[in-house]
Sequence to fold (293 residues):
Amino acid sequence: MNNSRRQLFKHMALAGGLSALSSPLLAAVNQSSTATLKGNIRHSVSRWTYGDLSIEELCKLVKALGFSAIDLVGPQDWPVLKRFGIDSSMCNGAELNLTDGWCDTAFHAQLIPRYIKHIDLVADAGYTNLICFSGNKRGMRLDIGLANAVTGLKQILPHAQERGVVLQMELFNSKVDHPDYMADNSAWGIALCKALGSEHFKLLYDIYHMQINEGDVIRTIRDNHQYFGHYHTAGVPGRHEIDDSQELNYRAIAKAIYATGFKGYLAQEFIPTPPSMDGKITSLQQAIAICDV
Fold:
């Protein structure tokens, strides 16, 4: 067994013991390697993209790979994260869905109490970030949707500020994955940030989605990083690995993010293509290595 594999097994043991892992995962980890991360980028991975693993297995894996955060985890799994010393880097569960969101006043009566409650849950758990969504336009003008979002979000932002929680609205593409989504461009999201004028409201800048809808990723980050509180990755086209099988230069993007002084998380949200867990783990390792600038 080479030194990198010994190190990986040591990490897995510290994370809770190899015996607790399923045999397929253990076999996959046995073929993996790990290296010390530089510490300039705070790495995370989206829970849903590694849904083949239990939350316990994913916690052990991220610890073994040298980072300590998982994105898009709700309250039901927070106790497991805490047991393994893993941060819930982007909390979810307050939203109704991805289409019924803050741009439409028809949903405010449901959204406001849900978010007030969830802000308390996030704060009480010691976490910071809570995701939210604009929802779909349904024929609504962009300026009306913006005004509606301001009206609704202003009713929960004072509570978020009081509890130290940051609301993060994700930007989606409407060209491929989320037709009719209102916050499908950085300009609309930035206008919302400016209208709200709060450090407790930021944008989740999804690099995959914004490459599809508008491109110009690095300049957008350099010029507007003060409005971006979180980043997601995935390869374009396809939403798979972020290697040279797709068009984005993620190492250059990660360098640009780091150069802005960003202290938040960069979360991998690609769908791994290998059929085996061994291959999926390798995909995650490679993505972390690409972004670890």
Notes: Residues 159 and 264 are 21 Å apart (CA to CA). Residues 108-124 form the longest helix (17 residues).
